[in-house]
Each structure stands twice: as structure tokens, then as C-alpha cells.
């Protein structure tokens, strides 16, 4: 199964990506691959205020482990 998440950070894209993976690991079993799909910045008043990493994460789907996907 593959889901898409966005991680954010005030410091870097690397930290933003790590945030997405850390969030996914809290509720997914057997996370296998994390792919950075897109990087962007949030700008306010001409200054970068957030780094964002859009990620695709794949994991082993186990039908016996049901999760409410609307939480993502």
C-alpha cells in the first residue's frame, strides 16, 4: 500500500522529510520505502517560514491490522 504525506519544518527539507516518516511510523507497520515527490517552501513577507516535503510512503498491508485512514 502507498500513502502520501506532507512533512513540514522551519529548518530544512531534510527535517521536513524526516517529520513525515516519523509521523507515518507512529501508526503504520513495516514502513518500507519513503520517496520525496516534491519539495516546496512557504513564504511570508518575503521570508521562508516553512520547508515542506511531499512524500510517498509504502508499507506492507496487513488486513488483520485495520486503521482509520481518514486520520491522515
Quick summary of this structure?
This protein has a 3-stranded antiparallel beta sheet, with helices on one face. The chain has 1 helix and 3 strands. The protein has a single domain, classed as Flavin-binding protein dodecin (Dodecin subunit-like).
Q: Can you offer a commentary on this structure?
A:
The protein is an alpha+beta fold and 72 residues long. It contains one helix and three strands, in the order βαββ. The chain has one helix at 13-25; strands spanning 2-9, 31-44, 47-59. Strands 1-3-2 form a three-stranded antiparallel β-sheet, covered by helices on one side. The protein is elongated and about 50 Å long. The two termini are 14 Å apart.
Q: Which runs of at least 5 residues are low in confidence (pLDDT < 50)? A: none
CATH fold-type name: Dodecin subunit-like
Return Rg in Å. 14 Å
Largest sheet: 3 strands, antiparallel
Q: What percentage of the residues does DSSP assign to strands (E)?
A: over 45%
Mean pLDDT: 89
Number of helices: 1
What is the CA–CA distance across the termini? 14 Å
Topology, number of strands: 3
Descriptive key words:
72 residues; alpha+beta; Dodecin subunit-like; three-stranded antiparallel β-sheet; elongated
Topology:
Layout: E1 2-9, H1 13-25, E2 31-44, E3 47-59
Antiparallel strand pairs: 1-3, 2-3
Amino acid at each position: 500500500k502507498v500513502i502520501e504525506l506532507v512533512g513540514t519544518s522551519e529548518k530544512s527539507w531534510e527535517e521536513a522529510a524526516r517529520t513525515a516518516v516519523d509521523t507515518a511510523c507512529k501508526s503504520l507497520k513495516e514502513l518500507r520505502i519513503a520517496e520525496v515527490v516534491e519539495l516546496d517552501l512557504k513564504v511570508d513577507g518575503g521570508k521562508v517560514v516553512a520547508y515542506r516535503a511531499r512524500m510517498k510512503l509504502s508499507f506492507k498491508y496487513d488486513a488483520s491490522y485495520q486503521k482509520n485512514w481518514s486520520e491522515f
